[in-house]
Automatic annotation (TrEMBL):
CDD domains: HATPase_UhpB-NarQ-NarX-like. Its EC number is 2.7.13.3. Residues 175-241 form the Signal transduction histidine kinase subgroup 3 dimerisation and phosphoacceptor domain. This is histidine kinase. It is an enzyme of class 2 (transferase). Gene3D superfamilies: 1.20.5.1930, Histidine kinase-like ATPase, C-terminal domain. Residues 1-23 form the signal peptide. The keyword ATP-binding applies. It comes from Microbacterium flavum. Pfam families: HisKA_3. The lineage of its organism: Bacteria, Bacillati, Actinomycetota, Actinomycetes, Micrococcales. The keyword Transferase applies.
């Protein structure tokens, strides 16, 4: 009000001496400098503490925010602090990932591009009393966009890769379930039926020669072994059910067979999940060897953690036909390879009183409780 009075008095005083034009010029000379000062004060107030500190903090915020949503939040917070605007929203493909501020209408838009591709859109509301952003606002937005664009693109690339990996895992899991169903529900029963047919033929064939009967018995035994192998493969396909805490239950399910003449005892401790597939294969391989090559009625499987924090597997049987000096077969070679893969070893001993296989898997994945 005082500025208006001074300008009016100046105008009247000059009007009486030099006329209207000079009076108006004198009044403007009083008002304009004050207006510039008011504009500068308003701009300083609008920018508050200035954009330098938020701009300097932006790279650190982006580096600690690998997720697209967090990156968008970091961008929105920085813009709001740097420009002093009431509301900021960051959108990607039309999806709002971050919103800072109140419900003010976001009428201004800024595109964020990286390598010629739009990665985000920023919408913001001008400061109170302003209808558009200033030239300085747009320069600051450009700086923020250039800094944030690689982080936004990288975060979304990481999300896309994770989503692709998840889709691949889902597809693999679906395929494993399908193969499991095919093996367990179709091939397994079909082979079992052939085995029963061979057994019935061996018992009911009129006047069979010893050679024919032996062949049929061999066919039945081969089919039964193949059925067991099909079961093992189908179980391995159910990876989602594998857990080291369920080792004994899993072995109980896999090693038992109908009309099994081998008495199997299990003594098992929980083992690391990452070692479980090889532990299962080692035990299954050796129990299969006991069935095929040892004249055994009893077999004891022990799996535990020794004092060196290693997994120790022992399979004892009371058979007497194994030759410890015989050439190593495929089964033992496979067991040795699996143990060595985990920094371990395998040892096999045999006598007239029975055989013992010991396999040790190194400490990979085993931690102290």
């Amino acid at each position: 009000m005082s500025l208006f009075l001074v300008a009016a008095a100046t105008y009247i005083a000059v009007l009486g001496v030099a006329g209207t034009a000079w009076a108006a010029a004198a009044a403007c000379a009083i008002v304009l400098p004050s207006g510039v000062l008011f504009l500068r004060a308003g701009t300083a107030l609008a920018y508050s503490r200035g954009p330098q500190r938020p701009l300097a903090a932006l790279p650190g915020r982006l580096a600690s925010s690998p997720d697209p949503g967090h990156v968008a939040d970091a961008v929105a917070v920085t813009i709001r602090e740097a420009l002093g605007v009431p509301a900021v929203e960051v959108l990607v493909s039309g999806e709002s990932l971050a919103h800072q501020g109140g419900e003010a209408a976001t009428t201004e838009r800024c595109e964020v591009d990286f390598d010629g591709e739009r990665v985000a859109e920023i919408q913001l509301a001008p400061r109170a009393g302003e209808s558009v952003l200033t030239r300085r606002d747009w320069l600051i937005l450009d700086r923020i966009s250039v800094t944030a664009a690689p982080a936004l693109r990288g975060a979304f690339a990481a999300r896309e890769a994770e989503e692709a990996r998840s889709r691949l895992e889902t597809a693999r899991a679906d395929e494993r379930r399908r193969l499991h169903a095919d093996l367990h529900d179709e091939l397994g029963p079909a082979l079992a039926g052939l085995g029963y047919t061979a057994r019935a033929a061996a018992h009911n064939l009129h006047g069979p020669t010893p050679t024919v009967e032996a062949m049929l018995i061999s066919i039945e035994a081969g089919i039964r072994a193949l059925v067991r192998r099909v079961r093992e493969i189908s179980y391995d396909l159910r990876s989602e059910e594998l857990s080291g805490t369920r080792l004994e239950a899993i072995l109980e399910d896999r090693l038992r067979t109908e009309d099994d003449q081998l008495d199997i005892s299990l003594i098992c401790q929980p083992v690391p999940d990452e070692l479980l597939p090889d532990i299962l294969r080692i035990v299954q391989e050796d129990v299969t060897n006991v069935r095929r090559h040892a004249i055994a009625s009893r077999c004891t499987v022990t799996v535990g953690i020794d004092q060196q924090r290693r997994v120790r597997i022992t399979v004892d049987d009371d058979g007497s036909s194994a030759d410890p000096n015989a050439t190593e077969g495929i089964g033992h070679a496979s067991i040795r390879r699996r143990a060595k893969k985990h920094g371990g070893w395998m040892e096999f001993t045999s006598s007239v009183h029975g055989s013992q296989l010991t396999a040790v898997l190194g400490s990979a994945g085993i931690r102290d409780a």
